[in-house]
Amino acid sequence: MEENPLRIWKKAMYFPYRKQIANKWWEEFKKVCHIGGPAIITSVSVFSLDFITAAFVGQLGDVELAAVSEVQNVVLGFITGIMLGLGSALETLCGQAVGAGEFNMLGIYLQRSWIISMLLHQDPKISDLAGKFAIWTIPEIFASALNYPTEKFLQAQSKVWFMAFSTMLTLVIHVLLNWIFVTKLGMGLVGAAISGNISFWILTVVKIIYIVCGWFPEAWTGFSYLAFKSLTKFLKLSISSAVMLCLEVWYYTAVILIVGSLKDAAIAIDSISICMNLQVWTLMVALGFSISASVRVSNELGAGNPKAAKFTVGVNVLISAILGVFFAVIILATKNQFPRMFSKEQHVISETSKLSYILALTIFISSIQPVLHGVAIGAGWQFLVAIVNFGCYYGLGLPIGALLGYKFNLGVQGVWSAMLGGSLLQTIILFVIIGRTNWQKEALQAEARVRRWGGPVETQLGS
Q1: How far apart are CA 10 and CA 439, in angstroms?
Q2: pLDDT reading at 1 higher than 50
Q3: Which of 26, 351, 365, 431 counts the most CB atoms within 10 A of its CB?
Q4: Which residues fall within 8 angstroms of residue 324, CB to CB, at 6 or more apart?
Q5: 401 pLDDT exceeds 70?
Q6: How many angstroms separate the CA atoms of 398 and 401, rounded?
Q7: How far apart are CA 153 and CA 107, in angstroms?
Q8: CA distance 393 to 66
Q9: Average confidence score pLDDT of the chain
Q10: Whole-model pTM?
């Protein structure tokens, strides 16, 4: 039977259009992977510093693991939320400035971020050890104050491969240091803390040397007194960014604190900390696409390309969702094996395995969630997302978690389920916000922001 000529014509017209769409997706996929690939290596390597410390300390005993987990998730988590938040303000400004071709103020933004970053009931056995370990981690905190703004400076310009290589090298050094101080010399928690301090300072100093030694002639023109000008305006955006990310990071901190008062606290903290370590490890992969979403969105908005900014959101979300499914399947397939990486105690292994289904779903959601945060940072929506985070996490997740964990005696599973509910609600709300966004208006706002913060204006003010 002869085919309808009109249908043949429609097919002929549709094929080039479909090919054009496929090519567009492929080109954007390559751009995303160019930024996201090295960013994933960097994020995973940086997080693996704590991951490796937990693995070495876990072999010393369950109380030691619980103590280190409290410091990593509570003390360092609290401080990391502030440092990352202050750094994300730099991510917005630098990314949009790069898109607009305004490189001359990037070094000043970096110095301002450095300045601002530098200024700014538990089980008794666990608390005692955690306190001792926390004191030894103080040098790592100062390294973080310099490290996070430095990362954002490099990411905004897509200089991510150097970060990947330097973090991988640091990771190898960190494994060696832990083997020497913790295993070979038997220095326990003190040895683990010393290893972390050395590794973080190596990581930070290498990046700073790379920046100030002539590799960025347009973006870094040396230390300048202009870094001390307009600090108030810079601080306002930094505070909004810090609140947004602090509410996110401190959510997990609060969960550890709630779990720490449950019956058999050491086992409860160990099991949820093992799950959090794995969840955050997969989160570091998603963070690579958060970074690529932030860089691509901020660059395209700064360049006045709203359609391209909108398109990259879809590409980043799709890739991260596929990876989320992949990681969730791995967790379910190894639910009786993965706890053994962290503990030899059978009761800890058993309790951790029970959380595998909740963990798998959490990993899937937290694979998509960071991409949406990356979009928010790239567009400069930090204050709006901070409000969403507060409502979902502290208005819903934590109160319900405490209720399920204590009132209904659901323990760790109840606390984690409520945390998951808060994350799910936050993700849905962010999807709605992004779906309703007027990207043309966002591009105009980015243009105004670059003019307001940009080089020529501020240089004239400073001269």
Answers
A1: 32
A2: no
A3: 351
A4: 282, 286, 363, 364, 365, 366, 367, 368
A5: yes
A6: 5
A7: 8
A8: 24
A9: 77
A10: 0.70
